[in-house]
């Protein structure tokens, strides 16, 4: 049984992660894992606690595992994942100045094949779940993610430009690195 390659889109909110994953899944004719936090917050409300973030992290991994099993059973060679435990770590630390041990342990245990770090150069798109519309916060978060990428071992690519440029850069990176 060969596991599909796992490609994760990460970065601050409103940087096109979901759109990119959906476009890539269409292009490669495979599945993508949606961001569980959106589903959770729409169901439970936008007020959340530190403990809720652990529930969200576990829900995210459940979606990822389901998609991985589907990809295996359908002989798909790659899946795209909108958000992983690094995103949960940043969210925990940015909002609550601490992170659940379960999330940190999960980061050490999980294996991915490529990260797509989405830059903040797209215009902010307001929705009922997004919290940090100011460019200063978005840039600060982007640099936190970039620092994480630099200090981990999985290949990563900075994704910037308009939506079409982002898609093409991601495709080129995936095809050359995998």
CATH topology: the name is Rossmann fold
Give the % helix: 40-55%
> DSSP strand (E) fraction?
5-15%
Low-confidence stretches: none
Q: What is the count of helical runs?
A: 7
Look at the helices and sheets and give the structural class: alpha/beta
Assign an overall shape.
globular
Tally the beta strands: 5
Largest sheet: 5 strands, parallel
Element-level helix/strand string: EHEHHEHHEHEH
Neighbour order of strands in the largest sheet: 2-3-1-4-5
How many independent structural domains?
1
Walk me through what this model shows.
- There is one protein chain.
- This protein is an alpha/beta fold and 178 residues long.
- The chain contains 7 helices and 5 strands.
- Strand 4, helix 6 (135-150) and strand 5 (156-159) form a beta-alpha-beta unit.
- Helix 4 packs antiparallel against helix 5 and helix 4 crosses helix 6 (135-150).
- It is globular and about 40 Å long.
- The relative contact order is 0.22.
